[in-house]
Specification:
This protein has 241 residues and is of the alpha+beta class. Helices cover 55% and strands 20% of the residues. The chain folds into 2 domains: 1-110; 116-234, Alpha-Beta Plaits (2-Layer Sandwich), CATH 3.30.70. This is DUF881 domain-containing protein.
Length: 241
């Protein structure tokens, strides 16, 4: 009977061990490769996802910038329109203020509203005459004398004029009837007080010009008294006439 070949057995055992080692080593290499591939894919996925987010944010930022630009242009256009409107409104206000001021001035001038202001007062009185006077009419105040004073007041810039407290206007009638004068149908006895609202120094200087109204009244034997720098109040016209 033959004995087992130990040498042959040893060779088989080594082959089995090497096979197992190579198998395990192959498995480890395959697993490592799989893991590396999995990691690379995950990294690539994360990188791609991050890039897509950044690209989305970039597009949103560009879109928002364009929107801001459009809104800024609209705001500038609105501001220009507002400035034009304010300029037009200011000009309209100025025009309205000028018109209103002119209208009030005209109402004051024609006597449709009461007025008050600084001015002067001129009092006309009959002159003294004796029994030897040839013509007593040469010593009394006539409507022509009143007209002279009123006319001088207006051309000197008077805003309003009154006789014995009665406002007069451009169409007023002044008639002398004996010892009284009639203003728009209302009689007033002497003395006659003529009040004028305006610059007192200008009005007084106009009356006192050499050879002017004051000198003419004195030459006609009329007693004249002038008081300036007064605060004068006048009512509106008594009627539309």
């Amino acid at each position: 009977m033959k004995k087992p070949n130990n040498r042959k057995r040893g060779k088989v055992s080594k082959s089995i061990v090497f096979s197992i080692v190579f198998l395990v080593l192959g498995f480890i290499l395959a697993y490592s490769y799989s893991l590396s591939q999995s990691d690379d894919g995950s990294d690539n996925f994360i990188a791609n996802s991050q890039f897509e987010k950044e690209e989305s944010f970039r597009e949103e930022l560009i879109e928002q910038q364009e929107r801001n630009k459009t809104l800024r242009e609209e705001m500038l256009a609105k501001q220009e329109a507002l400035q034009e409107f304010e300029s037009a409104f200011s000009a309209g206000q100025e025009d309205y203020s000028e018109i209103a001021a002119e209208a009030e001035k005209l109402r004051r001038y024609v006597g449709l509203m009461p007025v008050e202001g600084e001015g002067l007062k001129v009092v006309l009185e009959d002159g003294e005459y004796g029994s030897q006077a040839v013509n007593p009419n040469e010593y009394i105040v006539h409507e022509s004398h009143v007209f002279q004073v009123i006319h001088e007041m207006y051309i000197s810039g008077a805003e309003a004029v009154a006789i014995n407290g009665q406002r007069i206007h451009s169409n007023s009638t002044i008639i002398c009837t004996g010892p009284v004068i009639e203003v728009d149908g209302i009689q007033h006895p002497a003395p006659f007080t003529i009040e004028a609202i305006g610059k007192p120094d200008v009005l007084a200087a106009s009356l006192e010009l050499p050879g002017g109204v004051l000198d003419q009244l004195v030459n006609d034997n009329v007693v004249v008294t002038v008081a300036e720098g007064l605060e004068i109040t006048m009512p509106a016209l008594l009627s539309e006439s």
